[in-house]
Amino acid sequence: MTGIGTESSAMESARMTQSEAAGEAILLDGKAFAATIRTRVADHVSRLAADHGIVPGLAVVLVGEDPASQVYVRMKGKQTREAGMASFEHRLDATVSQADLLDLVRQLNVDPAVHGILVQLPLPEQVDTGAVLDAIDPAKDVDGFHVSNVGRLGAGQKAMVPCTPLGCLMLLRDHLGSLSGLDAVVLGRSNIVGKPMAQLLLRESCTVTIAHSRTRDLAEVTRRADILVAAVGRPGMVTGDMLKPGATVIDVGINRITEGDATRLVGDCDFASCREVAGAITPVPGGVGPMTIACLLANTITACCRANGLAEPEGLTL
């Protein structure tokens, strides 16, 4: 990873940050950081157009009318266009056949104007999600879900990195500098966040533990963590007494809680109690969420540069 955080001997300062337990935790502002990433993306898009006549293109496929998915797709399209990139949106009926969806993916695979392909999940039950994701050209798989990219990431080779774990790593490196030697616990073992997050932390020379619903004495495990990444989809599961004082907490959870007529977003961490113990923590909303879309744009730029044999953008790639 180049240009993300510092690679100097920041180990000691990171240790000092971890030990500062007094007062409220520092808020890691993912919204502000994501804006910085999008600015870097837009600058690189301008240079690609000026120097090579290339406009990176991102194709997003939405099947059905899931309200949350519609919001995500609309936001992705807006930010893609704001960065100066080409945005291609394909909206399909919820009853679409798997064969027709696969045909669309194959068309996008060979479209030279499309450098990144994202199929919005979840997909309807008549469609085999794995088959669709595996049909995407790995070089255009900006979500990083293709088995080829999963394997390459695990082997320490060049790969498209899933957007949410990449955003988490950027936040961690920006705050802590070097992560080498730190104890990291990833709470959650999904293919989308938990497993790739653990792989990225291993690359940073962390000592990594993956914890989950079957982990015995979970609080004992999490209290060892200098870095805790919570990605289980259970609101408020992590409480302050489960943290090591001064730990850096990345809350990936986005859970909708209904209270009377109002709905609000909360993370997997009980924010109030965790902020009293942690050294730094991401808020929900405004933490990891904005970083995910910013990293999607960054991955599209990376895919475009690789497809054209150009240098990859510094600070936006692994």
Automatic annotation (TrEMBL):
It catalyses: (6R)-5,10-methylene-5,6,7,8-tetrahydrofolate + NADP(+) = (6R)-5,10-methenyltetrahydrofolate + NADPH; (6R)-5,10-methenyltetrahydrofolate + H2O = (6R)-10-formyltetrahydrofolate + H(+). One of its GO terms (molecular function) is methenyltetrahydrofolate cyclohydrolase activity. Residues 28-143 form the Tetrahydrofolate dehydrogenase/cyclohydrolase catalytic domain. The keyword Thylakoid does not apply. NADP(+) binds at G188, R189, S190, I254. Its EC number is 1.5.1.5, 3.5.4.9. Keywords: Amino-acid biosynthesis, Histidine biosynthesis, Hydrolase, Methionine biosynthesis, Multifunctional enzyme, NADP, One-carbon metabolism, Oxidoreductase, Purine biosynthesis. Residues 162-306 form the Tetrahydrofolate dehydrogenase/cyclohydrolase NAD(P)-binding domain. PANTHER family: C-1-TETRAHYDROFOLATE SYNTHASE, CYTOPLASMIC, C-1-TETRAHYDROFOLATE SYNTHASE, CYTOPLASMIC-RELATED. Catalyzes the oxidation of 5,10-methylenetetrahydrofolate to 5,10-methenyltetrahydrofolate and then the hydrolysis of 5,10-methenyltetrahydrofolate to 10-formyltetrahydrofolate. This is Bifunctional protein FolD. It comes from Palleronia aestuarii.
